[in-house]
Amino acid sequence: MTYQEKLSEIRKQMSNDKVDAYIIPSADPHISEYMPKHYKCIPFVSGFRGSAGTLVITQDAAGLWTDSRYFEQAEAQLKDSGFELMKLKVQQAPEYIQWLNEKLDKNAVVAADEKLLSILSGELIKQQFSARDIQLVSKDYLSPIWENRPELPVESAFLVAEEHIGQSVSSKLAAVRAELKKQGAAYHLISSLDDIAWLFNIRGKDVNFNPVVLGFALISHDHATLFIHPGKLTEEEKVTLLKSGTEVLAYEEIERILSHLPENNSIFIDPKRNCYAYAKLIPASVNIIAGTNPSTLLKAVKNDTELKNTREAMLKDGVAITRFLKWLEENIGKIKITELSAAAQLRKYRAEQEGFIGDSFNTISAYRANGALPHYAAAPETELEVKAESLFLVDSGGQYFYGTTDITRTIPMGNNTEQEAADYTLVLKGMIDGCKAKFPKGTCGYQIDAITRKPLWDHAINYGHGTGHGVGYFLNVHEGPQVFNPTNTPVAVELGMITSVEPGVYRPGRHGIRIENLVHTIAAEVSEFNDFYAFETLTIAPISTTIVKKELLESSQIAWLNAYNRSVFEKLSPRLNAEETAWLAAATKAI
Asked: Is residue 100 a contact partner of residue 55, using CB atoms and an 8 Å limit?
């Protein structure tokens, strides 16, 4: 069935039900960023394979709302699909709601599969539509036309021993319950897969790149229930969880349990990370208390064991990156290297490291103009051959049994232009300023974002994505609640958080540059004005200086760069052979 045929079939169902518009979010019942194949609805309907977007279908229009990271990708992938690209002005803003409000008549009916809408989205849609009496109903128009739809994954999961995590399930549950007590809630529903993985020290293979398990959790003051596919854990593992006060029930049982919550109670729910359909199952007499999952902040602050193990993962990752950079330099122009073959070679070096589980996201291997697409995904039909000129951007990461990595290096391949050198230096300058920032306790991510952007702003340059995101511990590479971006997100940068710093410059049709390190928030000093924090740089891999325009850098930035590269050499050289050590010594030479 072609995309246009699928669109036609959806419209037939809409017509039969007298539905005027159908919304398809990029989500699953866990409101995940990365989803199992069963819930990859947008690629199925439209062909668009980006990780963020919303489809809206009416009888005479069909659009994909996505942000600037995906504009060029969407234009190409939506060709002949019947869908038009609707460019978001603000990343993640629900601008399709206003479009529907303007397009639809009063008393129109809008449908969506409410299992794929967050509570926040569902309530916002209802609120925005209420003035014009537009009704929201729950419909699934994809299952009837999705032949051989992938089943939900049933691969086994596993529990991670406490010594590798640094905290028991019992103590994590106690910390969550302490917050529930403050909120006056008798129950707490968790649907987000990374929160569940963290809380129950469980990992799995249900979603590409994120080592999570499909499940739900319901917590009360004296009991916890984990709802997962019954075959995912052994009986011995279920007994281990039972000792922590956690019962394991079937994944589907969550609907029955929610529907029968005791009357006149209260339940704490994160409206951003639970689905609208399940919120509606809760009896009317049960009071819903909305707020961020307590586990989200608890998870973001890494304990000593997690930090120690993450540092080891960074060393192993640095060895793999170093070997890749050496291989690239020594083989360019001698053998054919493409974006895909380079990514495969990098994965090979990572896979040689003890404890490697897999990639933490799909490697962005982008040469020349492809680098100007921040979330470019190389494919056989789009990939370029990498040659000994211009710039090659590689954004990649690994999942290790003891940590998650995410690193971007832009590699000057030779014969670089003045503009490439200037852009590279300014991005590096911004990354350095972000990494060496010192700031008072209570500082939020948008303030770090501005510090990092200033060197680019000084030259009237900007970039359309955030400067940084939280990173999990053998978990999701994108982890909240902290973000370094321009939005006024009221989340302080706390001690123990791991966050990326990754400014960029993107010139369509020419090149893209991004340089990224992960940092860990540490105490810096105490003054009469406040406690001050700083960042420990965790990423350990050389930063190329071959095209750096030294005159654009301040002395403190040059000192930081030289000290960083010297540290990379000191930490990695004991793990390399003589030839690799000699190459790294040259690559990290001071400027």
From this structure: no
